[in-house]
Amino acid sequence: MSGDLTGTQAEALRGRKETIANHWYDAIAPSIADSDVSEVKSQLAEWTNLVITLLLSEPLNREIARAIGESLARDVSPKPSTLGKTQETLAQQIIEGLPAEQAAALFPSLTELLGEVAAGFVQEKDRLTQSMRRKFLSTTSHDIRSPLNAIIGFSRIIMKGVDGPVTDLQSQDLTTVYTSGQNLLKMIDDVFNIEKVEAGSIEIDAKTFKLEDLIDGIVADIQPLIDEYGNTLEVRRADAPDEVHSDPAKIKQILTNLLGYAAKFTRQDTVALDVSLAATEGADWIRFQVSNTGLGMTPAQIKRFTQASSISTLQYDDISLMVSQRMCQLLGGELRIESEAGKGVTFTIDLPVRRPGT
């Protein structure tokens, strides 16, 4: 690039630093409406100096160029920007006033440099947005859980008659309050957990545990939902191992999610949980199959959550399934779905009896 930009040209650009900074400002103004204009323009003037200096380097230092973009993202605003869409326009504006021949020689290098700046800008914007979203979810989920747990707890106390007799009609109302509270709490947990999975911040707590005890606990937790829709839960255990070394909480969450999904889309029929041992390539795997005879899923429904890159495109039930899928992957296993619309669905979960690396 040094052959494209002479010292005279560099000085000419530096002499237009304020004008160039104004062009930068106009490009990103929609995203910084709440910022101090003079302060932002001052910062942009300094970054303009850095850009001109980089144009003197050979070859382009992409790392520094992207760092400028990251600084723009952090210091100007955490909101989305149009900078990445305007690099050619900016390049044209920056070389205004230079002789046509010199401007033409400089334009490709300047466009490339601004492209790297924009890449750093967008990458840092995404990181900041994700960080803010995770912080928001973490804070609000805690703030919501506290009163919600109180609602769930006190409704159950009243249902049990601890505070005095309850009529049948009151009991029905309290049951609705209790069940709705549990469902809302699960929704909050699902959204928060998928955010943690996407951020790579979820931890696996692997330990050896009794499989029978885990299954019994899951059945006890899911039975009210099974009863709510008039279904019957069948649990079949064939050659299942006595002990498993994995994360019992994650396995419980996976199976509770899938059994809950199966129960909600079945009416007065059977939801089944089959547990068996499967040997694959010399290793022992435990297989869980959750099936129902309900509405089933279309190929488009299955694809929507199995191939989703973000929870923003999902419906709530998809999020619950996506959490189960990602948890399976974290535990070294996989989740498969076999379904036909109107003929029920079968979820197959294969997990190593002993999680790899433990």
Task: Describe the structure concisely.
The protein has helices at residues 7-15, 17-28, 37-55, 62-76, 87-94, 100-159, 168-199, 211-228, 248-264, 299-306, 316-330; strands at 207-210, 232-238, 243-246, 270-280, 283-291, 334-339, 345-352. It has 358 residues and is α+β, with helices and mostly antiparallel strands. The strands form 2 sheets. The protein has a 5-stranded mixed beta sheet with strand order 2-4-5-7-6. Strands 1-3 form a two-stranded antiparallel sheet.
What is the CATH fold-level name of the largest domain? Heat Shock Protein 90
Number of domains: 3
Q: Which structural class do the helices and strands define?
A: alpha+beta
Q: Find the count of extended strands (DSSP E, 2+ residues).
A: 7
CATH class of the largest domain: Alpha Beta
Shape verdict: elongated
SSE run: HHHHHHHEHEEHEEHHEE
Under the CATH scheme, the architecture of the largest domain is 2-Layer Sandwich
- The CATH homologous superfamily of the largest domain is termed Histidine kinase-like ATPase, C-terminal domain
Biggest sheet record: 5 strands, mixed
Strand order of the largest sheet: 2-4-5-7-6
Question: Which assembly state applies to the chains in this document?
Answer: single chain
Helix fraction bin: 55-70%
Which percent range describes the beta-strand content?
5-15%
Mean pLDDT: 79
Uncertain segments: none
- Could you give the distance between the termini? 53 Å
Radius of gyration, whole Å: 29 Å
**What is the helix tally?**
11
